[in-house]
Amino acid sequence: MSEFPKLTYDILTVGEEFVSDTHLVTPEDIETYAFAVDDHHPWFSGPSPFGGPVAHPTLLGNQALHLRHGKYIVHAGLHAKMEFNFLEPVEPGMRVRSRGRVIDKYERRGRQYMVTEFVTEDEAGTALVRGQFTQMLIPEGTRHGSR
Amino acid sequence: MAVAEAIPVGQELPALVKELSQRRIDAYSGVRPRSIHSDEAWAREKGFRTTLAQGMMSTAYVSEMMTRLLGAGFVKGGTLSIAFIKPVYAGDRLTVHGVVRETRPEGAGMRVVVEVWCENQGGEKTAVGSASGLAPSP
Q1: Domain residue limits at B114
Q2: A109 and B CB contact within 8 Å
Q3: Minimum CA–CA partner of A35 in chain B
Q4: Among the residues of A1-147, which ranges form H helices?
Q5: What is the DSSP letter of A52?
Q6: CB-CB under 8 Å, A36 with B24
Q7: Which of A9, A13, A68, B82 is the most exposed place for a label (fewest CB within 10 A)?
Q8: Interface predicted TM-score (ipTM)
Q9: What CATH number is given for A17-137 in this structure?
Q10: In whole numbers, what is the pLDDT of chain B averaged over residues?
Q11: Within an 8 Å CB–CB cutoff, is residue A12 touching chain B?
């Protein structure tokens, strides 16, 4: 059985790796995402230049962003930066998984940050999306306050 | 006219306007306790005036703008780099802007680079960055 320690700046190690579970991309995922971001492009539910429907390119961003939740209890955080490289279209029916690695952590103006690079792949191991993101840690017992 | 010819540097893209309702935030982020996105009391405890939209929602808006501009050349071959500089709250209205800053040959096509940013209803920038994608060559 896995233990989930609380994520703190000190416990986090540059070089540590994360992996998500495999997720089946469904038409319902795409429909829900379309509602959430109010983007109902016809390619998301019908023919596209790639053949059948494709997903919003950013659909799987949260699978990558939540990688650390598979290893730690995350008290609170803020997303500071996001980079995507969309390599191949994401299609319904794909089984996808994200892997990530912490490539940096730093403190700036009293705030703590972690930087993770990631790749999201289909079940054949084809890279669909690569990128990296920076997340601010909000330590337990503290307030971030409005900026 | 080829797509690349129709995208001059300096062109301002049609702005997108997005209403950030709690219902859409919930659909994006899921609903759970102790989440700054869906638990208002928790968000206040963490120092925010109400729940926040995920920054990632703004990347989706930029993606929509770029897909409208470049179509398949953004879905496959697109890039996006965004810094989230101010919180976006439930109830905010964002306007997404883009201006073409560069076109350069890449492979059989042209890479189109766009400066992008989001502003809230008060005119404050909430996210800034760039996005790019491939347009067919003339």
Answers
A1: 4-136
A2: no
A3: B24
A4: 27-37, 61-65
A5: S
A6: yes
A7: A13
A8: 0.94
A9: 3.10.129.10
A10: 94
A11: no
